[in-house]
Amino acid sequence: MILPTVSSVRALHEKYAPGPEALDLVLTHCEIVARIALRLAERAGQPVDTALVEVGALLHDIGVYRVGTGAYIRHGVLGHELLRAEGLPEELCRFASCHTGVGLTCDDIVTQQLPIPLGDYLAGTVEERLVMYADKFHSKSTPPRFLDVAAYAGRLAQFGPDKVTAFDALVDEFGHPDLDPLVAEYGHAWQQGAPLPR
Fold first, then answer.
1. Taking the CB of residue 174, how many other CB atoms lie within 10 A of it?
2. What is the largest CA-CA distance in the chain?
3. Each residue of 35-45: pLDDT tens digit?
4. In 3-state terms, what secondary structure has residue 7?
5. Which class is 6-191 in CATH?
6. What are residue 121's DSSP bridge partners?
7. What is the pTM of this model?
C-alpha cells in the first residue's frame, strides 16, 4: 500500500476544514495523537507499521469537519466515507470509523440508538488499536486538554463495565503514555483522574 505523505494529509485537512479555527483544532489534535501513538509503538513489544500509524492518526478525525450541527458520534463514519471518496485504501479509511471510544458494536448502536449505520466499528490491527488508544489521551474540548489513564477510564465508566474492561486491555497492551513533554509543549490543560475502584 502506498501511503499519502504528511503534506498531502495536511492538504486534505485544509480542503475539508470549514475554517482556520476548525483546521487548527482538529489538525493539532491529530498531530498530538500521532505523536502519542508513535511513542507507544516504540515499546509495543510487537511489530508495528509506524508509517501506517502516523498517517492513520493524522487522518482519524477528518470526519469532524463534516459533522456540522449533527451528532458528533457520526464523525468516524463520515471520515471513512470522505477518505473512501478521496480514493484512499480501506486500511486507512478504517482509522476514521474504528477509533471511537474503545470501539462500537452493533449492540452499542441499537441500545444507545446511535445515528450511524448498523455494524461493528472495532479496531482490529495493532496499528488501529494504537491510534484508537492514543486518541483517548487528548480531547478537542474547549479548551483542549490531555487526559491520563484514570481520567479517561472515569469518563468511560458511564458506558458500562465492558468498555472499562476493553480499555484496561489496551492499557495492558500498550502501557501508560508519557504525556508530560506534550503537555509542556502544547500548554493544554492536564486532566488527571482518580483510579476507579476495581
1. 22
2. 46
3. 999 999 999 88
4. helix
5. mainly alpha
6. 104
7. 0.95
Report residue 13's pLDDT band, with 50, 70 and 90 as the boundaries.
very high
Residues 173-190: tens digit of each pLDDT: 999 999 999 999 999 988
Around 69, how many Cα atoms within 13 Å sit in the side-chain half-sphere?
A: 0
User: What is the residue type of 61?
Assistant: D
The type of residue at 35 is: R
- The neighbour count for residue 71, using CB atoms within 10 Å, is 10
How far apart are the C-alpha atoms of 53 and 33, rounded to whole Å?
Answer: 10
φ and ψ at 139, to 5 degrees? -115, 140
* 8-state DSSP, 157: G
The grid coordinates of residue 103 equal: 470501539
Beta strand pairing call for 189-191 and 138-139 = unpaired
| C-alpha cell, 134 | 492514543
Strands 145-147 and 138-139: antiparallel
Complete edge-to-edge strand list for the sheet that includes strand 138-139:
138-139, 145-147, 189-191
Element (H, E) at 191: strand 189-191
C-alpha grid cell, residue 37: 501513538
Q: Sort 22 into a burial class: Cβ within 10 Å, 0-12 / 13-18 / 19+.
A: middle
pLDDT tens, residue by residue, 105-133: 999 999 999 999 999 999 999 999 999 99
